[in-house]
Amino acid sequence: MNGAHSLVHTLLKSGVDTCFSNPGTSEMHFVAALDQVPGMRCVLGLQENVVTGMADGYFRIAEKPACTLLHCGPGLANGLANLHNARRARSGIVNVVGDQATYHRPFDAPLTADTEGWARPVSAWVRTSTRAEDVGRDAAIAVQAARTAPGGIATLVLPSDASWDEGGLPADPLPVPPATAPDPHAVRTAARVLREGRNVLLLLGGPALREEGQRLANRILRATGAKVLAEGSNARVARGRGRMPLERVPYVADVAIKALAGFEHIILVNAKAPVGFFAYPDKPSRHYSPDAEVHVLTRFEGDAVAALQALVDELGAPDAAIPDPGPRPEPGRGAPTPEGLARTVAALMPEGAIVADESVSFGRGFYAETHAAPAHDWLHLTGGAIGDGMPLATGAAIAGQGRRVINLQADGSAMYTVQSLWTQARERLPVTTIILSNRKYQILIGEYAGVGANPGPTAMNMLDLGNPDLDWVKIANGMGVEAARATTLEACADLLAQSTSRNGPFLIELVI
Amino acid sequence: MNGAHSLVHTLLKSGVDTCFSNPGTSEMHFVAALDQVPGMRCVLGLQENVVTGMADGYFRIAEKPACTLLHCGPGLANGLANLHNARRARSGIVNVVGDQATYHRPFDAPLTADTEGWARPVSAWVRTSTRAEDVGRDAAIAVQAARTAPGGIATLVLPSDASWDEGGLPADPLPVPPATAPDPHAVRTAARVLREGRNVLLLLGGPALREEGQRLANRILRATGAKVLAEGSNARVARGRGRMPLERVPYVADVAIKALAGFEHIILVNAKAPVGFFAYPDKPSRHYSPDAEVHVLTRFEGDAVAALQALVDELGAPDAAIPDPGPRPEPGRGAPTPEGLARTVAALMPEGAIVADESVSFGRGFYAETHAAPAHDWLHLTGGAIGDGMPLATGAAIAGQGRRVINLQADGSAMYTVQSLWTQARERLPVTTIILSNRKYQILIGEYAGVGANPGPTAMNMLDLGNPDLDWVKIANGMGVEAARATTLEACADLLAQSTSRNGPFLIELVI
């Protein structure tokens, strides 16, 4: 058995059965092994940032890692931005990066690059398997690293000779350590703060934002009067009917500082204390009050649900119903507004939908209008590297096994990984993309105002996307995805409703 | 004056007057400075690998560096693959990468990443300017590094506070060291080998492949009977009437080994001794004979033309005319073949055209049929990281000031950086793209055969681009570029001829 076959066998034994790929010459033996060993679903992406973004979306829904197949250092490099986002989402991914044969590397052939060096900043674990005998063992360790709480990026570099040489040994799965148990001291401290403090914020991140975590957080809120917020950018938030009407820490510095000003205590549950996405002259980096005390209930690797349960027990917080969010919204009408679009989506999304949100500036108020939607999961751009929404939607649809994915997608960001549409068409995925077509980098025009000047033609040349306008219907059709344009919310609602009854993808260009 | 203004002033004083950009929040003060200080042409790319590839194409034609404007670590990461190609082309580029404010970095905000770590593998020079006072000085050093022979990638990381703080000091240009003068010993050795050896190969790379280098190489060839070849992948080769009918070292291992087998001596002129692009089981890494002696006339930083002149003088090689390549080819006819397409391009390209060649497997024989075309420059994919052709064509057109660029472009590679078309439309660039639409990764299907198996459905799912077919006319139209499909060489010739009389871009989808 060669190294490549041992790799496929090990991955499958470890429960990795989906491979997002864009292979090259040095990976041909691995491709052959995937072909010859049954069990791996292989999904092609036409650019590697699509591939890695799909793997991120897949993990967020499937709750287990997929592998990627990437070609040499530059193939990995193309996927780094969405690996950055995946790292911030704390997603588990096993990257398999084919590379030059060990003995060929010193010749510095054109595609030779510092593959490990590029992998390290986004990876929790990096290793190059230099011998076929090691590949199975290393792959099992990679999967273990990817599955270790909260989830990590494991990058296995596979020189082509380690792939084609005989001597491969499939390895058994390695045990995955459980998430860290609650620290009794941290639980008691949090309980004391909640009992005694008046202005307490319970800040939820990671698995605390899933249904069970919210159920417990709701009991704490009812028992103590604390406020509960989600981090600003989250991998996955359970939302809609039956879930808490949670809001997020606002993005805009002034708004966030105002929203957080009153809190004297912040209890972090798999979350970070809120800081600015960027610094601004004369604004603080920390968005919470300098007088606030920050308490850590759980770190990222902690078992958030167990910790919240321990806190509920310590507080003796009684059962409490999640509040009723009121009636389901009606679709919006007339010219597209953020609130109207959010209501339209809330009105028409199917039960169990997944929202992949890269709406950037347009979508900051989407939460408020969608609490009364049917139960759904909401995925955010976690690392700020734009170009994640479409690949996330695609990977989430692969993992979702029929769940409808609604991708709320800014146009400038969409262009980064527009190739995702082709994969959606090939795999006939239930993805409805709503392109928020404002034909500019609106967020940057807003930021430019903060510089204290009006943009002249040179600046606007870098901030607007008009001249020529992108025609999203043609672009989508060109990649095999049906599409239509809407200029009103009524038209958008019609298209959205139609799209959810289809089997495959559909794109709505919503001119805003 | 703030740091950003000092940066723009310094770049302009140093002769950098073109900025390929995709800015973000942390670069707004630099964008404002570009807006307020006249003189910089700013060209927006909708994804950073387009941006860096344009900068590479610009350098190859303009022979001076442009700057890029990239957003934080992930923005740089998106452009690394084409920086890898630019490094292999030995192109000079000044990357300006905006980043978190120095004091904000410790807070690990979502977009914080290891920007320097990602830059280092592709850069000859990396520095973070931590104070506004340092920005001008550092920018002058960056330009010096980019212009130092043969050309290098200089990456200047610009934290936002170094950009917005007052205290900026524009710096004067620093002297650029000349290319290394010929080594008399190397010249004498090469002359002796050429006089005494029988099977001698003069292998040209870098500036040796420009017109003057070829004129001198031709005299050496005439005087000594040596053979002359170009490296396999070159940044820029002067070709067509009045230039040598040079061939390249073949890509395919067996073909290259056969072509090089007879040479007992190889003299390198700004070139590397030929090795395989990849290793293959039971094939050597070196493609030249194990018995051959390799002699270095000049390294990459050497003055190739001066060294060739010194060699001509040492040999006393008389003036010699470049051989006449025969009549200009007629356009091909019927179904598209590589030879027929090459003849069509040779027949119809305008004098002074630039060919940006990312034709991959289809284009291996293009040289043989295009020696008798009008004088033109040919740009190759140098680093093997696909997705370079369209950005190269775009940047070359910016530098070419009206020269027609013909982009011979494989479809799978085109999808990597398809966003380039929009920039071509916005800037109304004279680029004719010929998409070689075979709807598969043909090179990989060829490589798969070497694994010794027929691809089954799982493998073909990763190697073919059909299901659905990409519709290049729609994709191009969607980005504002006129386009048409051709299935015969006659139709291709008609469209190519029409396109060269236009002002703007045009795309031909040639179904092969």
Automatic annotation (TrEMBL), chains A, B:
InterPro entries: DHS-like_NAD/FAD-binding_dom, THDP-binding, Thiamin_PyroP_enz_TPP-bd_dom, TPP_enz, TPP_enzyme_TPP-bd. Residues 379-509 form the Thiamine pyrophosphate enzyme TPP-binding domain. Keywords: Thiamine pyrophosphate. Signal peptide: none annotated. The keyword Transmembrane does not apply. SUPFAM superfamilies: DHS-like NAD/FAD-binding domain, Thiamin diphosphate-binding fold (THDP-binding). It comes from the Bacteria. GO terms for molecular function: acetolactate synthase activity; flavin adenine dinucleotide binding; thiamine pyrophosphate binding. GO terms for biological process: small molecule metabolic process. Residues 1-106 form the Thiamine pyrophosphate enzyme N-terminal TPP-binding domain. Residues 318-339 are annotated as: Disordered. Belongs to the TPP enzyme family. PANTHER family: ACETOLACTATE SYNTHASE LARGE SUBUNIT ILVX-RELATED (PTHR18968:SF86), THIAMINE PYROPHOSPHATE ENZYMES (PTHR18968). This is Acetolactate synthase large subunit. It comes from Muricoccus nepalensis.
